[in-house]
Design brief:
Number of helices of chain B: 14
Oligomer: heterotrimer
CATH superfamily of chain B: MetI-like
Number of domains of chain B: 1
Helix content of chain B: over 70%
Order of helices and strands of chain B: HHHHHHHHHHHHHH
Strand content of chain C: 5-15%
Strand content of chain B: under 5%
Largest sheet of chain C: 5 strands, mixed
CATH architecture of the largest domain in chain C: 3-Layer(aba) Sandwich
Chains: A mainly alpha (278), B mainly alpha (305), C alpha/beta (458)
Helix content of chain C: 40-55%
CATH superfamily of the largest domain in chain C: Periplasmic binding protein-like II
Mean pLDDT of chain C: 90
Strand order of the largest sheet of chain C: 2-1-3-15-6
Radius of gyration of chain B: 24 Å
Number of strands of chain B: 0
Radius of gyration of chain C: 23 Å
Largest sheet of chain B: none
Low-confidence stretches of chain C: 12-20
Distance between the termini of chain B: 24 Å
Chain lengths: 278, 305, 458
């Protein structure tokens, strides 16, 4: 190795160390604090590892239900809806040639960033009120699907675009219905992309705090990101031992899902998402 | 001619059936609320107080209140939130996430193995972990007395910094770079993967320097992706709410962005009409930004290639 | 769409499983067992609910009563209530802050007891023990919306141990400290700052982060000392510009900006109130203006900010007017009272049973039970403050001086403007004059210029 190569190697190692610490350090607390008896904001390796914080959480039926029933229903329903509808729509859009579809796609993404933000909370709340969907899982799921679909279609589109049409054509020639072609030919090839989309949709719904805060009214239906605030005292201070433990439990499903998809399909974008540029 | 090929794969009737659920959801839960926001932004709709029972049309007074230039730059007013948002978007999205994501993607483009898995997984974790959970971790990370960041800085002889009080806006910018880099990273990584190997080989034969290679080969090829990343990341960052869980927009509204301002007006003061007016302005700004990007991109694709 | 039906079935299943023969009543309030308002939860869940269920059963009715704990801020609870009531939901009985009543009533979100229960509400014998002033805590325009838990007063709490250490009070003398004017109060703070540089001498609430705590424990306590209230009850107008407002703002400026007798940062950071409690507990704050809630709940045994030897190391003094006799209504000392209580949700499916529970909780027996858990000023005149001489002494000394907030729908917005005004001064953004001018402008846009008093000379 010449000097230059060694120099580059050192630079590379330094960069990797910096980047790794940048992404790792802020969440260390989440892993350390739940196991200390007296959690503070300081990250320390607890001298005595305790699981009593977790026991306290599992005794709190409201919080357990929020995490293991409500959050799963909401995130699962949203994931299913977004993945299915976005794939169908992306497939249709790519196989049709509608004038101005790129502009339309951008407009939808534009709106969606607004609807999932704070801006449209008011009409969303009123709309669900008139649809009698306030305080229901479906209300939350529907709003989330509506908000996530545009970006979902956007993410899916280039991937569908890259799918060679010859497969579908040969299937059509053999007399299959377009739906069968989609199900038996397109879907299997699209699956890795759908998996990434599904993880993305699940994660968005799993972490969303504003929509359930506004839509869900009864404590028994609240998902985890809202329920976590029950570990605040009414003096307004977080009970750090319980909050950190609950946060960790709340984060685990997302980590598992990511690892699973990453291991099975590779967690990456397909086609590189070029948007409007053809 | 090509068009006919598509139709043969998917008859229009089936295509519309495929589109139907998405269109239904988008119309009901996206387009309709957006129109509704427009309508109530001209009223004094509120949840409590006399306007709670009988809201009335107030013309453009919600808007003129926001743009009262005599006071709008005061802390806690709309102008202050707008300036904060611009700094937040510039700092965390345009100067932070996109370049950092590109740098990571470039660096690991031809590498496989542990370091890549580690960096990619950690960055992706930062992106997908629930906002409420990471917000608590960041509160701990940036704490003046107990936080990790100050602990590390003290090794380098830097005395304790009161991040939340003295640098609240920088704090949430740092947080958002941490939070959102993964998207750009994944996007560019996929884009680089699409560059045919022959291009790299040609560059090697010519003996191009790294910078030349980037400027003349990589950059033109990933330009469409770059635009996509810029548009999406800008729009998302504009509307992101998670930093609220860390600073609450404070202290003294110094880290209040427009989306937090909207939340405060609509859900703390319960003044829905005024909140909707802010939402309309936000949408307009987003629309203008997207249009600028799109037209830039159009021009490139028409004349650039 | 098969999944969709699956979800529908699940939701229906969960919904149906809760429907049964017995009546379920729910109560909610900002209280968490083990938290600072733990006493309320203990009283309701351990005393009131079992007794009520028993009593109903003896009348042949099966009821289940649940308490829904709410952690978080007052503002968050208010937001939840507003959304709940808007869509016709929420618990049957709601823990409510009195000053929200006008705002919620104007929007038609709540209703007077008489409208929900019917005229038989007046048949309850407890009314004769609840004086008019107490009924007004959860009342508006002559209508009564609920029953108040009690009322409170505000004082200066100080750490005797720090006072003795500094030599303000001779050690072991048992003497008490009581300033007669702002100057005496500030002199004590100055002296402590000199002798104990590590201790924050005086915290008096300011800024929007503290919310209503700033208006009640801060702004009113200073403003009343200059001789005016925020609102002139005779003319029905708000004070927008007044020498009194300026004097009050200058007091803040002296404390937080000019002499740094208090820590402005501590007023403005997220979680300011909790941090303040923490520092007072740890003996880092010498004087803190707070409500009696601070004594009976925050510092009380079992709370996260408990001081085990509270009665030895903490004492209280009345807040002086600027000069003797210069206070509101010519008083030497000033204080203000608020109050929380329970109202009935107008959407309740069981108004009679809900009222039965509410009135049962406010029966003499149940209120006495509450006094055993946490002695304080109750709304029933036949329920004395027992077991805590400090509480009864505070009540006796200060109730004659007290006043209340104006019960008007515009009050919460004006209160926020007052908090903002103090924030602008203590953070050094504006001079008192500028901040007052801004306040007056904001007032005019909230209630109209005709309802704002602009007075430059006294």
């Amino acid at each position: 190795m010449d000097v230059k190569a060694i120099f580059y190697k050192i630079i590379f190692v330094i960069f990797v160390v910096l980047i790794t610490s940048f992404f790792l350090l802020p969440i260390l607390w989440l892993v350390a604090a739940p196991f200390s008896a007296q959690a503070t904001l300081r990250v320390t390796i607890p001298s005595v590892v305790t699981v009593k914080n977790f026991c306290a959480i599992f005794r709190n039926t409201f919080a357990v239900r929020a995490l293991f029933l409500n959050s799963i229903l909401i995130a699962g329903g949203t994931m299913f809806g977004v993945t299915l509808f976005a794939t169908l729509a992306a497939y249709a859009i790519s196989r049709l040639n509608i004038r101005g579809r790129d502009i339309f796609a951008y407009l939808l993404v534009l709106f969606s960033s607004v609807v999932t933000g704070t801006a449209a909370m008011v009409p969303v709340f009123l709309l669900l009120y008139y649809l009698k969907l306030i305080d229901s899982y479906l209300g939350v799921i529907f709003v989330l699907i509506g908000g996530l679909l545009p970006t979902g279609i956007f993410l899916m589109r280039d991937f569908v675009e890259s799918l060679p049409k010859s497969y579908e054509e040969s299937a059509l020639v053999s007399g299959a219905h377009p739906w069968q072609v989609f199900r038996d030919v397109a879907i299997p090839i699209l699956r890795p992309g759908m998996m990434v989309l599904a993880v993305w949709a699940f994660v968005q719904a799993w972490g969303d705090f504003l929509i359930p805060l506004i839509v869900i009214r009864s404590p028994s239906k609240m998902p985890a990101p809202v329920a976590i605030y029950s570990f605040y005292t009414e003096g307004g201070t977080p009970v750090l031992t319980l909050i950190s433990a609950y946060s960790l439990l709340y984060a685990i499903p997302v980590v598992i899902l990511y690892l699973l998809v990453n291991w099975r399909y590779g967690f990456r974008f397909f086609g590189g998402i070029k948007g409007g540029g053809k | 001619m090509k068009r006919r090929d598509y139709v043969s794969i998917l008859p229009r009737s089936v295509a519309f059936a495929f589109l139907a659920p998405a269109v239904l959801f988008l119309a009901t839960f996206l387009i309709f609320p957006v129109i509704w926001v427009l309508v109530i932004s001209f009223t004094n709709t509120a949840l409590t107080g006399p306007a709670g029972t009988s809201p009335s049309f107030v013309g453009v007074s919600n808007f003129s209140q926001l743009f009262n230039f005599a006071r709008w730059m005061r802390l806690g007013e709309f102008g202050n939130a707008l300036v904060n948002t611009v700094i937040f978007v510039l700092g965390s999205a345009l100067l932070g996430q996109v370049p950092l994501g590109l740098a990571i993607a470039m660096l690991f483009h031809k590498r496989r193995g542990l370091s890549r898995e580690l960096v990619f997984s950690l960055a992706t974790m930062a992106w997908i972990l629930p906002g409420v959970a990471v917000a608590f971790a960041w509160i701990a990370f940036l704490d003046k007395d107990f936080g990790n960041l100050n602990a590390i800085l003290s090794v380098f002889g830097i005395s304790k910094i009161d991040w939340y009080f003295d640098f609240p806006l920088y704090s949430i910018i740092l947080f958002n770079v941490w939070r959102g880099t993964a998207f750009s990273m994944l996007l560019f990584s996929a884009a680089l993967g699409n560059i045919p190997p022959s291009f790299w080989e040609t560059a090697d034969v010519i003996g191009a320097s790294a910078w030349q290679r980037f400027r003349d080969i990589i950059f033109p090829l990933i330009r469409p992706n770059l635009f996509t990343a810029l548009i999406l990341v800008t729009l998302w960052t504009f509307n992101v709410f998670t930093p609220y869980l860390i600073t609450g927009g404070g202290p003294l509204y110094r880290s209040e962005t427009v989306s937090m301002y909207t939340y405060r007006i609509a859900f703390k003061f319960l003044e829905f009409g005024r909140g909707a007016a802010v939402a309309v302005i936000m949408m307009s700004i987003n629309f203008i930004l997207a249009t600028i990007y799109l037209s830039l991109q159009r021009r490139r694709s028409l004349y650039g290639r | 769409m098969r999944w969709c039906w699956l979800v529908v079935m699940l939701v229906l299943g969960v919904g149906l499983s809760t429907v049964g023969e017995t009546i379920t009543l729910t109560v909610t309030a900002r209280a968490v067992r083990g938290g600072v308002n733990s006493a309320l939860v203990e009283w309701l869940e351990d005393r009131v609910f079992p007794a009520f269920v028993e009593w109903m059963r003896s009348q042949g009715k099966d009821v289940i009563v649940n308490f829904i704990q709410f952690g978080g801020s007052d503002e968050a609870l208010k937001q939840q209530y507003a959304l709940d009531l808007k869509v016709g939901r929420g618990a049957d009985i709601l823990g409510f802050d009195g000053f929200w009543i006008p705002e919620f009533d104007a929007a038609g979100l709540i209703k007077p007891l008489e409208e929900i229960v019917g005229s038989q509400v007046w048949d309850w014998d407890g009314w004769s023990y609840i004086p008019q002033g107490m009924r007004e805590i959860l009342g508006y325009r002559g209508k009564v919306y609920g029953l108040p838990i009690g009322t409170d007063v505000r004082v200066i709490f100080y750490r005797c141990d720090l006072f003795e250490k500094a030599g303000v009070i001779p050690a072991g003398s048992g003497l008490r400290w009581q300033p007669r004017s702002w100057e005496e109060l500030l002199n004590t703070a100055r002296y402590i700052k000199k002798v104990l540089p590590d201790v924050i001498p005086l915290q008096i609430n300011a800024g929007t982060e503290m919310g209503e705590a700033t208006t009640m424990q801060g702004w009113f306590m200073v403003l009343l000392g200059t001789g005016i209230h925020m609102y002139d009850f005779e003319t029905g107008k708000w004070y927008g510009m007044h020498p009194g407002i300026l004097e009050a703002l200058n007091f803040y400026k002296t404390v937080y900006v000019d002499e740094r007798l208090g820590d402005a940062r501590l007023q403005l950071i997220p979680g300011a109130r909790a941090r303040t409690f923490e520092l007072f507990r740890d003996g880092k704050i010498a004087m803190l203006v707070e409500g009696d809630w601070f004594w009976r709940s925050v510092l009380a045994p079992g709370s996260e900010w408990a001081i085990p030897n509270r009665n030895e190391v903490v004492d209280w003094a009345m807040m002086p007017a600027k000069e003797p006799g210069a206070g509101y209504r010519g008083q030497n000392f000033v204080t203000i009272s608020g109050g929380t209580g329970f109202i009935l949700n107008p959407n309740t499916a069981h108004p009679q049973e809900a009222w039965a529970l509410l009135s049962f909780a406010f029966s003499w027996e149940m209120q006495m039970e509450f006094q055993k858990i946490q002695p304080r000023i109750r709304s029933r005149v036949d329920v004395p403050v027992i077991g805590d001489p400090v509480m009864s002494e505070m009540a006796k000394a200060l109730l004659p001086y007290t006043t209340v907030r104006p019960m008007l729908p515009g009050y919460p917005k004006i209160s926020y403007q007052a908090q903002l005004m103090t924030e602008r001064v203590v953070s050094g953004q504006m001079s008192p004059e500028e901040a007052m001018a801004e306040y007056a402008e904001a007032l005019k846009s909230i209630v109209g210029p005709e309802s704002v008093i602009v007075l430059q000379e006294k």
